[in-house]
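Re: beginner question about structure tokens

> Can someone show what the tokenized structure looks like for a real chain? I only ever see the sequence side.

Sure, here's an example I had lying around. Input first:
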Amino acid sequence: MESSDSLRNKCAACYRQFNRMEHLVEHMRTSYHSVHEPTCGVCGKHSRSFESMREHLIGPLPKAECERIFKDRGCDICLGIFGSRNALRNHRESCQLSRGNGLFNRMANLGISNDMRIENNRSKVVALACKMVGGGSDGSLDLCARVCLTDECENIIFQTYVKPLLPVTNYRYETTGIRPEFLRDAMPVRQVSRKIQDFLCNGEPIWKIRSKGGRARILVGHGLDHDLKCLDMEYPATIIRDTAEYPPLMKTSKLSNSLKYLTKAYLGYDIQNGIQDPYEDCVATMRLYMRMRSQNHEVENYPLATDPQNRNNFAQWRQGELERMSPEEMLEISRSDYYCWCLDSRG
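And the corresponding structure tokens:
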């Protein structure tokens, strides 16, 4: 049985134990534990990422009781725990997704259109994906040759082949399916970028765009820094939702997971087999975003550690006061160091 001293120096979120209370305070100062972290449905332990939570439940050295309950009533996709096996079966029907209607996907491939379908499109969130061909002497320079933009309902807003500024030296046909004739009369990359940026900004000057309350649309994707660079396009980071950079979806090493892995692990189906379709990537990133956004986390008035109201929560001048707090009290004032996507659903 744990002593009262060890319980007092035990983090209320990740359950790490410290010899001295001052060490626990320093841990809380730098860990940014919050209600937005993935949490074990059995023991309540917080993890930095879903991958870390998966290791806690079914990894090489899982917690025995959590592993037993999870194997009986846990969903291996969303990592939720359910009251009965029947409840788990009912949940799996909605949690495990598929690639979608095959006919629709084929029609999406055929529907290359240079026109932006914006009539009556009031979507506040859009997904972007590009496919790259190779440039340069060895074909290793990424050049955007196809782009797709979809809305929250997985409808195509814009899809076109793109004519790069530089000569293409490797069409990477095995994965892109792109041939030279597809790009001969394609839209120039600068025109594509302008169309996409105008649609995303939605009539709002890019320098005036703020994180909430404006007309600009939230942009979802995977590795968007790279895509936007290849399109020679800028967009404010405050309204970008990148599945490659979102902490709960990253590896325990804090490196990015591939979109292929994320789709299999957290949506339950395979993508990017053979010739890859940017529409399929848009659908996958949008589904990941919607799944993360739909998480039901506790509402906080000021949820970020960077909010002015929280900047002194763990200030050095409060050290004595913090050491007199219980671990639970410190967790109550701890805030996240990243923007949780569930906050997008709260206006």
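Each token stands for a local structural state, so reading them left to right follows the chain. The two ends are 46 Å apart (CA to CA).
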